[in-house]
Design a protein that fits this description.
Shape: globular
Radius of gyration: 15 Å
Strand content: 15-25%
InterPro entries: CAP_dom (IPR014044), CAP_sf (IPR035940), CRISP-related (IPR001283), SCP_GAPR1-like (IPR034113)
Pfam family, one: CAP
Number of helices: 5
Protein name: SCP domain-containing protein
Helix content: 25-40%
Strand order of the largest sheet: 1-3-4-2
Number of strands: 4
Length: 154
């Protein structure tokens, strides 16, 4: 992707994220250049290896997805929609951490205020890796965190 295409992808991801967040009473996210750089660096690393691995050293919230696009460029709305679909597995009546919903809960986490996005083509394959970093990180598992930060849609 060219620099301009990466910027367009980031803008699309931010807009799509904020559309979802507003439905759950969460404030809009702002772009963060530091998070863009860290997410892009990790996306480049994963594109070289072709393996999904979370960056334990990042100290931020993180969502990662590999996308098969059949010769097309990835779309920020489609990636966000994929993560948002996890909400069908989330119980707002019993809010808690669940492996099946970690992308959704980070997406709408109320106290998260910033995001950065990295996107890179996987070496030798027709697929892309997208990494999103969030600050402050969501999915913290202190008592009451999920109830406070993941609200049902209005």
């Amino acid at each position: 992707m060219t620099t301009a295409e990466i910027e367009t992808f980031r803008t699309d991801m931010l807009a799509a994220h904020n559309q979802c967040r507003v439905q759950h009473g969460s404030p809009e996210l702002a772009e963060c250049e530091d998070l863009h750089r860290s997410a892009q660096s990790w996306a480049d690393t994963l594109a070289d290896t072709g393996f999904l691995q979370y960056n334990e050293a990042a100290g931020v919230g993180e969502s990662i997805v590999f996308v098969d696009v059949n010769g097309q460029r990835p779309c920020g709305q489609q990636v966000t929609d994929e993560w948002y679909r996890e909400s069908r597995h989330y119980s707002f009546n019993q809010p808690r951490w669940r492996k099946e919903t970690i992308h959704f809960t980070q997406l709408v986490w109320k106290t998260t205020t910033q995001m950065g996005v990295g996107v890179s083509r996987v070496r030798g394959q027709d697929r892309w890796v997208i990494v999103t970093h969030y600050r402050p990180q969501g999915n913290t598992n202190m008592p009451g965190d999920f109830k406070k930060n993941v609200q049902p849609p209005t």
